[in-house]
Description:
Order of helices and strands: HEEEEHEHHHHEEHH
Structural class: alpha+beta
CATH architecture: 3-Layer(aba) Sandwich
Largest sheet: 7 strands, antiparallel
Helix content: 40-55%
CATH superfamily: Class II aldolase/adducin N-terminal domain
Number of strands: 7
Oligomer: single chain
Amino acid sequence: MLEELKRAVLEANLELPRAGLVALTWGNVSGRDPGTGLVVIKPSGVPYATMKAEDMVVVGPDGKVVEGEFRPSTDTPTHLVLYEHLAGIGGVVHTHSTWATAWAQADRPIPVMGTTHADLSHMEIPVTEPLSPQQVQGGYELATGRAVLAAVAGRPAAEVPAVLVSGHGTFCWGASPDKAVEAAISLEEVAKMAWLTVGLAPSTGPLPAHIIERHFSRKHGPDAYYGQG
Length: 229
């Protein structure tokens, strides 16, 4: 099972540069084994072009390395906090993708301006509060995870599958590593569309609520009918 998860996490990481979501080594994907609670994550600073499944690092819920020759991603504490508190997730992605990160750097949540966003979430994509000097000094990555959770505000992970980290980048999640990457790809497209819409028509407001809810519910929840089931 763990070997399968390593391959899945590798493939999800390799999808990031293919999808144009990362440059150099600026991103990472992890996956959690629900049976053991162990997390498989990308090694820190290793180029995507040379990564192999055996390079993935296995850590426990406490962050200690269980298996692997490399150091895990520096964002590992953030991933672990999200797994601990967001029920039902099995994959987490962190990127500095251009369009979404622009919103994060502007400290602006992404409003639901169209149906593409509503397919991803029926709520705006929130942005975290900036971290204080004390939070940064006391454990930067852990504080980042807690700030993400505060931005989610206790809502189900499937309803808010992504958060913008103020001045930093994005964290997205899903039921598996590949589903988390899908969320990251969708977020980047939504961020681009919203940015262009604001540029064309700055006064544009949110999509009407009844259309938002229809698009979200046809893809998510007990009444979903999108796809082949």
